[in-house]
């Protein structure tokens, strides 16, 4: 390989925005596997390194690097290297690595038949993200995954399933991927169809709420459409047969409900302990909220567990040409791949999106806008659309009472996650989920 100076790596890593271990002292960095990619006039190393910290669990990162006078530099800043990486995917090529091989995968089919311009333009995405995405020829978005996790990558697995096993097309299709096979095996990059002129659902909704005092019928109808797309996504997941065991629906059992309920009760304890200094009010509602979570365990089980999106909120949908597209199937980043690939009640996704409506309303209020309590109407429209397309679906609970109790319990679960997320990332915003928790408690 082009020589990698290991002694320079801790310093290099600490200066990368995608490196999440900036706060912890690094004990050492080792190269798990590496390959030399040579294409289109660019040669660079694709190395998988393990960062071992003085304390805490080791982490793996993908380093596409070239040697430079002061050690290493990011090969992804070089357009020719980017094209070389994409070529490997597009041609389904492979390159031997020290401990395995790097393999490109291109998904054949209508979407894969792209007429890409030559030379291929490379445009870097100007968004805050934990990976690195580039737009190629304005038709493909290639995401190079920076922090690697062992096992099956859910974004690739779900994208592949939707593209090849279902007719669900309200998503930017997965076109291909780059994998490392061998002991350090992982998915290194994913390529999707690029959606031009798309606005993300969060921005789209905030704009509507900023400009309208009351939500108009047009926006509500769009939210009904969003509910329909989410319902259709769940129908696509639930259509899996036993030939796709990672997706095939399974009966929802009493023990699932008990396990989920116990987990919410546990999270309630941890979250209130974390939040109590900032929001002592929450403590008063503890018993009521526990009751709320426990009700989930008492539901008579019906319906199925299916694969779900797992991290559904307004930031995970795109609005383009008057249509909604659902994307980013990687699940909640804080959880392991195994946990993210678990089958759940579909209502967990519904609850996630519903929480986003409250966030949007609260965000406009925090900006100085008057709160108009529009989240309720949006929620109703969304759930209405969802129920319209999923009526009678085998994966949903068979009675209304169970539907409501389960949905509320998953909303509570998401609220607790949000309190922890905001305490960690945006302490000023913690009041958004806290206010919602207080309202939930008062409504009992
Ligand atoms: N297929 C696509 N078409 C257009 N824009 C996209 C597409 N996929 C992602 N984006 C944009 O890129 C941003 C980052 O993508 P995402 O997959 O969420 O990256 P990360 O996992 O690193 O956060 C999204 O917020 C969205 O604005
Ligand atoms: O980075 P991800 O998209 O995987 O999700 C994380 O960050 C989200 C914030 O960007 C966070 O979402 C929360 O805030 C949103 C508004 O910024 C709101 O629409 C969501 O409903 C709310 O949960 C998400 O929880 C977190 O996992």
UniProtKB/TrEMBL annotation:
Catalyses which reaction(s): D-maltose + ATP = alpha-maltose 1-phosphate + ADP + H(+)
UniProt keyword annotation of Ubl conjugation present: no
Record keyword Transferase present: yes
EC category name: transferase
Record domain Maltokinase N-terminal cap: where: 12-68
Gene Ontology molecular function: ATP binding; transferase activity
SUPFAM superfamilies the record matches: Protein kinase-like (PK-like)
Leader peptide range in chain numbering: none
Protein keywords: ATP-binding, Nucleotide-binding, Transferase
InterPro entries: Aminoglycoside_PTrfase, Kinase-like_dom_sf, Mak_N_cap
Start and end residues of each Aminoglycoside phosphotransferase domain: 122-330
A Pfam family it matches: APH
EC number: 2.7.1.175
Family of this protein: Belongs to the aminoglycoside phosphotransferase family.
Protein name: Maltokinase
Organism: Corallococcus macrosporus DSM 14697
């Amino acid at each position: 390989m082009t020589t990698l100076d290991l002694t320079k790596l801790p310093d290099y890593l600490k200066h990368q925005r995608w490196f999440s271990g900036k706060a912890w002292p690094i004990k050492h960095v080792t190269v798990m596997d590496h390959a030399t990619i040579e294409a289109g006039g660019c040669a660079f190393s694709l190395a998988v390194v393990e960062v071992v910290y003085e304390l805490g669990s080791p982490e793996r990162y993908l380093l596409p690097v070239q040697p430079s006078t002061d050690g290493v530099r990011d090969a992804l800043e070089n357009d020719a290297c980017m094209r070389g990486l994409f070529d490997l995917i597009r041609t389904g090529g492979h390159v031997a690595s020290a401990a395995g091989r790097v393999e490109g995968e291109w998904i054949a089919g209508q979407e894969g038949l792209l007429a890409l311009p030559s030379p291929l333009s490379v445009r870097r995405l100007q968004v805050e993200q934990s990976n690195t995405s580039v737009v190629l020829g304005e038709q493909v978005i290639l995401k190079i995954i920076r922090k690697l996790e062992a096992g099956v990558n859910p974004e690739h697995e779900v994208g592949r399933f939707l593209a090849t096993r279902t007719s669900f097309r309200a998503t930017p299709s997965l076109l291909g991927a780059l994998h490392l096979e061998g002991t350090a095996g992982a998915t290194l990059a994913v390529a999707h169809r690029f959606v031009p002129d798309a606005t993300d659902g969060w921005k789209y909704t905030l704009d509507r709420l900023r400009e309208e005092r009351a939500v108009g019928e047009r926006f509500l109808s769009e939210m009904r459409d969003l509910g329909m797309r989410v319902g259709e996504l769940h129908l696509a997941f639930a259509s899996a047969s036993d030939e796709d065991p990672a997706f095939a629906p399974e009966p929802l059992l009493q023990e699932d409900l008990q396990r989920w309920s116990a987990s919410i009760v546990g999270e309630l304890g941890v979250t209130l302990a974390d939040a109590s200094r900032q929001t002592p009010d929450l403590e008063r509602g503890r018993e009521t909220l526990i009751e709320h979570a426990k009700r989930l365990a008492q539901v008579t089980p019906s319906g199925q567990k299916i694969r779900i999106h797992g991290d559904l909120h307004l930031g995970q949908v795109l609005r383009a040409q008057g249509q909604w597209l659902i994307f980013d199937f990687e699940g909640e980043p804080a959880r392991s791949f195994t946990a993210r690939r678990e089958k759940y009640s579909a209502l967990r996704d519904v609850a996630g999106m519903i929480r986003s409506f409250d966030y949007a309303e609260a965000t406009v209020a925090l900006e100085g806008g008057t709160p108009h309590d529009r989240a309720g109407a949006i929620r109703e429209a969304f759930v209405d659309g969802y129920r319209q397309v999923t009526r009678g679906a085998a994966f949903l609970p068979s009675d209304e009472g169970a539907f409501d109790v389960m949905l509320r319990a998953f909303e509570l679960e998401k609220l607790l996650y949000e309190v922890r997320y905001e305490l960690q990332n945006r302490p000023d915003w913690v009041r958004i989920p806290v206010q919602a928790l207080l309202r939930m408690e008062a409504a009992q």
